[in-house]
Write a structure and sequence with these properties.
The chain is of the alpha+beta class and 240 residues long. Helices cover 45% and strands 15% of the residues. α3 runs antiparallel to α4, α8 (185-202) runs antiparallel to α9 (207-214) and α8 crosses α10.
Length: 240
């Protein structure tokens, strides 16, 4: 059985009952860490804060939260890359680098009903998860090819090999990637490589070794990619 993992005093997450998703909650403290950037990871989120439901689309660059009042609570369902568009009923590229009100996607009446449902719940995490599971039960299942694409690119395989192994050409892969991930496979591969490198570096691997293990040409290549995608140097991002 999955267990809840506490990431920090003000943030916690656990695997969702919705396959491949994560449920998380965060309380704004007003401390400088509240404005730490949300890094590109290929995922999309359905988010709630009191009186509001909205969607965070796939990011191509770091997103810095703003106007977070101390004490305000946020709850989210984070969808694995490629799985949210079928749930939301909108192609991912239409939400790229955007935060969109749920009312604009599902209609004002439905968004208001669901927002009130989560607002009134004793456990907003459980309520938001229930909303997502009910919606997912009525949605078309994600394209199985997408899971192959993500797994292949996460493993560091090239876009050309990923397409060939999937039995489609590069143009088809690009078109399907835009709808599923919000950007083409090369950008997705770059984002996933970034996450792979950060995980290795956070585990204590030296930057040069991290670069080699994650598939970068060298440490300088890793440093450039981190700066371009996150807006800050690698050392600053990892706290020194």
């Amino acid at each position: 059985m999955a267990t809840e993992s506490v990431v920090s005093r003000d943030y916690r997450e656990r695997p969702s009952r919705l396959t491949g998703a994560v449920v998380w909650t965060r309380v704004a403290t007003g401390a400088p860490g509240d404005t730490r950037p949300v890094l590109p990871d290929g995922c999309m989120d359905l988010l709630w804060t009191e009186g509001r439901l909205f969607v965070a689309g796939p990011d191509t660059r770091a997103y810095v939260p703003r106007d977070m009042e101390p004490g305000s609570r946020f709850v989210g369902i984070r969808f694995r890359p490629g799985t949210a568009p079928a749930f939301l009923g909108v192609p991912a590229h239409e939400l790229r680098d955007r935060r969109e009100e749920l009312a604009d996607l599902w209609g004002a009446a439905e968004a208001r009903r669901l927002t009130e449902r989560v607002d009134d719940a004793d456990d907003p995490m459980a309520a938001l998860e229930a909303v997502a599971m009910e919606r997912a039960a009525d949605a078309d299942p994600p394209d199985r090819l997408l899971a192959h694409v993500v797994a292949s690119l996460e493993a560091g395989r090239s876009v050309a090999r990923t397409a060939a192994d999937a039995g489609i050409n590069a143009r088809q892969l690009h078109r399907r990637s835009l709808a599923a991930f919000g950007y083409g496979p090369k950008t997705l591969a770059r984002v996933l490589r970034l996450q792979r490198a950060l995980a290795l570096a956070r585990d204590g691997l030296a930057y040069a070794d991290t670069a080699a293990a994650a598939g970068y040409a060298d440490q300088a290549h890793l440093a450039r990619d981190v700066k371009e995608l996150t807006g800050v140097p690698l050392g600053t991002l990892l706290g020194g």
